[in-house]
Amino acid sequence: MTDKERKNKPRQIMTEQGPLERIANFYEVPYGYSEDQAVNEAMRCLQCKEPKCVSGCPVNVDIPWFTKLVVEGRFVEAARKIKESNPLPAVCGRVCRQEDQCEKFCLKGKKGKPVSIGALERFVADYEREKGDVSVPEIPKWTGKKVAVVGSGPAGLTVADDLVKRGHKVTIFEALHVPGGVLMYGIPEFRLPKKIVEAEIEYLKKMGVEIELNSVIGKIETVDGLLADGYHAAFIGTGAGFPVFLNISGENLVGVYSANEYLTRVNLMRAYRFPEYDTPVLRGRRVIVIGGGNTALDSARTARRLCPEEVTVVYRRSREEMPARAEEVRHGGEEGVKFMFLTAPTRFIGDREGRLKAAEFVRMELSDPDESGRRRPLPIGGSEFQVEADVAIVAIGNDVNPLIQNTTPDIGTGICGNIIVEQETGTTSKKGVFAGGDIVRGGATVILAMGDGRKAAASIHKYIMTSGSSGSSH
Asked: What DSSP designation does 365 have?
């Protein structure tokens, strides 16, 4: 096919559940590509000699190569090509911000729409899994080295994948009763089905990665204890699971949730499958969600499915400054979520029984850009007003969990409690200890955490093979 023919091919659009249908269920919204759609979309790739899309991917997936395999109908081989650098393709194909990463650098996007790299990644990963053709790569003979990975979120899973493929024994310690971290508790079923995460983790287990659940490092064992117990290195990828609150009056009222608690109750504890799972969560009639990121949209779209009369996302900046993915905002709008921009909460108001009944807001205006590059919101005096609400979900970010830091006093931390590392290696101030993902960055994206994991894995491999690190084997 000539370059001209490639340029003229339209971008393939995934079919989706209709809005009225999907707000009555928690099934995944996009259906994914058909085989013909995938081939036609992959044909749009120009097979650039110096592909910028690869450098735009934090884990450096060889995008031209895998799209070429799709064009040839070699879908399983395409999935395996991706897995050489990305152990979670079915996850990343669904939740990555491709528009800000690989697709942002696609030459097709200069004069049109970029190749839909994420949809293709999802297609080949789903094809491999659904055809039952998932195979484990050949694992080298054990090197005699063992690595402890604390946390089974995206960073920890990526470290485990890279290290086990280098011949090291890897044990993941997960605090919760299921592995997956934020992929399991923080992202709704309709955006990332739990069976997808479970299948990706099962692939790692087949390669030899061991996972110990209900293992809170910092409580049952410390990082120092792991190193003394035979592990030659440790990676900390415990994420940012502590919610940030507004620090305004009324946040302790019944009906005011952090997004972290709300999504955990619904996603991990299956509140959406009542009465099969009798997990308590207030459904409410009028729900307000404070924030403008993907977590705010996840919360709002979840609330919409739990049958409230009205769900409103309240954001202190304008639509243009919202960090949420455009697809998330579009889906929310289609599903009936309302948006209130340039508005910030000042207090929550309760009834005599301590239950939320309303929220007070103030109008905002945008001033000069702040350190984030977005224009700073400032309140407009005298513009306060009240809105009736019986559920409020605060989704303005997360802080890091301090448990590891508090029980590992010789590890360097920042003013926010985040672990300080060398950016390109994930090396901490403590010998033999590495870190990455949200515990370092604060709340960020799945693929950035995975990129951190790949860098740290390379550093861990070099460290344990060349430094003479010693750990008692057992």
From this structure: E
